[in-house]
Amino acid sequence: MVSVTVDREWSAAPSAGPGTRLVAWLRPAPSFLAVGAASSALYGGLYLVLREVATSQWANGVALVLSTLVSTAGNRRLTFHSTAASTVVPHHALGLGLVVAGFGLTSGGLGLLAALDPSATRTAELVVLAVANALVGVLRFTSFSLVMRRDVESGVPAPSLS
Questions:
Q1: Which of 65, 7, 47 lies closest to 31 in space, CA to CA?
Q2: C-alpha torsion angle, residues 106, 111, 112, 116 (rounded to 10)
Q3: What is the pTM of this model?
Q4: Is residue 133 within 8 Å of 107, Cβ to Cβ?
């Protein structure tokens, strides 16, 4: 037996005003920010550990991929309440696709920092990475909101425990 899990906590009636729809659309933002903060801490820690044995670009790339997998899983479950097994791969593919944008912004920022200050500290590198990742976070929230909400609201079947 297959049951359908639908969570419409973000929905606003189509006839609702733009302010009401915006508030409904932003309702999951606190959870998204909490998952993002945990993921950013993981990313920063991984970056610092990997930076001891690798270049800034390699450390950045590996830390981005690993923290993105954790972040996507957290946002699927905690932010957007997406539990359908059929959407795991597409949602993670979207998350990893966003790594390309993230890597472009973060590696571009690191490259610019290195060009402006070849002796930049690890702290300066982390500040540049934090700003770039904040921009990617906005892109990630928008993308996940559009895709994961659509999947949940359209009633993508979730496996039943009964």
A1: 7
A2: 140
A3: 0.69
A4: no
